[in-house]
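User: I've been trying to design a sequence by hand for this structure and keep getting stuck. Would you show me what you'd pick, starting by listing the structure so we're on the same page?

Assistant: Good idea, let's start from the same input. This is the structure you sent:
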């Protein structure tokens, strides 16, 4: 399966604070493709699509840095539906008041060959996308080195740990993990560290 990786830069805003961030965006498939996240800047993402058919734009969660290019991106790549889990609608509305995503993610839903795994904790509607074989797109739920940040509004450390245990760490060890920021990892590299994460509390 072809995967194109785009990195875009911008500002993550929550709780009245701002952070400069680099985001990973994934264009998944040969043709057609699914786009995982719509961060900051539609143009380089549309360039990576390169005229292929886009069946869906899937947002791993509703934080502004993962969704802020979604309407412009949809318009640039032929108008595919934008998907978000409904439990993150309040975050969507912080960026796009008065509008809604086109469709809802739910656990087990199949989108363009990827299966949705609802993995709340970083945010209530956080989701990962699994290809059923060797690849996971983990959003801000699982990074190289541990779980995503749960120190801010709408996050829960206990919940993200439960998501790890029930949804992610039982996937095949060789599964490659493509996160929403930073470097790839594998399930096999991360799963042995669960007890350390619980002990340190992040
Ligand atoms: Fe996030």
């Amino acid at each position: 399966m072809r995967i194109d990786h785009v990195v875009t830069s911008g500002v993550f805003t929550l709780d009245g604070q701002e952070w400069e961030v680099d985001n990973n965006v994934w264009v998944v498939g040969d043709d057609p493709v699914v786009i995982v996240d719509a961060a900051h800047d539609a143009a380089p993402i549309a360039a990576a699509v390169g005229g292929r058919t886009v069946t869906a734009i899937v947002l791993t969660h509703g934080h502004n840095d993962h969704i802020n290019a979604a309407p412009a991106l949809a318009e640039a790549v032929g108008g595919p539906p934008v998907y978000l889990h409904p439990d993150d609608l309040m975050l969507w509305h912080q960026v796009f008041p008065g509008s809604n995503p086109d469709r809802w993610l739910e656990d087990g839903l199949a989108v363009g060959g990827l299966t949705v795994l609802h993995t709340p904790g970083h945010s209530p509607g956080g989701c990962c996308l699994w290809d059923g074989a060797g690849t996971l797109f983990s959003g801000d739920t699982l990074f190289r080195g541990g779980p995503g940040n749960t120190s801010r509004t709408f996050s829960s450390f206990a919940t993200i740990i439960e998501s790890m245990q029930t949804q992610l760490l039982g996937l095949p060890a060789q599964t490659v993990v493509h996160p929403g920021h930073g470097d790839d990892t594998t399930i096999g590299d991360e799963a042995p560290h669960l007890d350390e994460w619980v002990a340190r509390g992040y």
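That's my pick for every position. To get oriented when you compare it with your attempt: The CA atoms of residues 37 and 148 lie 16 Å apart. The first strand starts at residue 3 and ends at 14.
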